[in-house]
Amino acid sequence: MKRIKINRLLASDTSIDKVLVKGWVRTKRDSKEFSFMELNDGSCLKNIQIIADSQLENYSQIGVITTGSAIGVEGRLVESPGKGQKWEIHADSVEIINIAPEDYPLQKKRHSDEFLRTIAHLRARTNKYGAAFRIRSEMAFAIHKFYNEKGFRYLHTPIITGSDCEGAGEMFRVTSLEPDAVAKAGKMDFNQDFFAHEANLTVSGQLSAEMFALALGDVYTFGPTFRAENSNTSRHVAEFWMVEPEMAFCDLDGNMDHAEELVKYLTLHAVTNCSEDIAVFTDFVDKGLKKVLDTLIQQEYARISYDDAIDLLLKSKKEFEYKVESGKDLQSEHERFLAEEYFKKPVFLINYPEKIKPFYMRLNDDGRTVAAVDLLVPRIGELIGGSQREERLEMLEQRMDKMGLSKETYWWYLDSRRFGSVPHAGFGMGFERFLMLITGITNIRDVIPFPRTPGNIDF
Ligand code: 4AD
Ligand code: MG
User: Whose CA is nearest to atom 30 of ligand 1?
Assistant: First the structure.
């Protein structure tokens, strides 16, 4: 007999004479004549109740079933007289697949997030993390759906790269040289290395995406990115996923319109298609979340310049840990103040000083700022970073010279500005930060299956 998943059974509109379910026992209680088990198979938040009659052939074995054990049940799907559930299964036979011993760590109903992080290999078996990772899966699908509907092409940008997109030097090195050999030689000899060239894990697929936007029009890449920045915060991980659209014939305004459309679409998709799992977070994790989700979907996002944002921050009576200074990057406390307290909704900040932004951003007519855009959101701060790109060869070369970047290394990038260069724009949205936003989860380590952070790669 073929196994049916619990989410399908719970959605059934008739009783069914014979079904087979398999899953993990969440709780079990026994009476004289019956054993009641709550079975979960991960297909949805809800469990299905199994009722095993003491007349069953292997009833004595059922006695040893513990929390966390895996079982298969054949039986009848019948209407449940109990509250809060439409269906239950009356077992005809129970197959024991694996008995979890007493030291199964998930015995209690509630565990702290900190403890669950130490058992990241098991935490998806709890209601909260099961919900979080089902939402993550659904959101990844929604990203592809959104871009497919809009006619964007999906591009696989390389994971191993020979260039540093952000120019921040926060890259993980990729090499096949043996540490001992390097130590002996006293240096890394790239000529002897696998690619005969310095190689790193990518921090962003943008530069490759630009090349393809100038060929296919609208493209996006969605994949893992890596940053060796030593920031041990609740919003940074060393390996994260980023969705990066890149659009030909698009300027900064078009870029923002697109970002707003994306965030609205994904949030609405979550609320509509993951309502049961989202309710875990609106009801139990964060009472203010419902309002945040409504705001994300319904409100028009604010748009202001970096200069105006600095003015607002300086005029605010707020005591910040880090001083607000014109010409400097904003700290996340400043970003959160703007989105959370001042605008009370997402806000795009544009036109940052060129000094604090990467080489590829388009220089504005004032010669002082670039056409950069960050989207700041309540509770998190920066969700999106992007820009209109510098499409003018001469300006780009000047900026690269100023920043000390090698034109030889970026020859292919510069080629795109020589052959049919057009205005284009794009951005990157941190997938984990987006998941934090729509679930109210406050630590980025809790929205990625196995987080990588400084000093930590257990799993
Ligand atoms: O602002 P960033 O650095 O922008 C870029 O990498 C551009 N090349 C993207 C582009 O224009 N195609 O990163 C984009 C986003 C951030 O806004 C943030 O949401 C996320 O990526 N991000 C991180 N998320 C988790 N952990 C980290 N260490 C992150 N660093 C950036
Ligand atoms: Mg950024």
Answer: 236
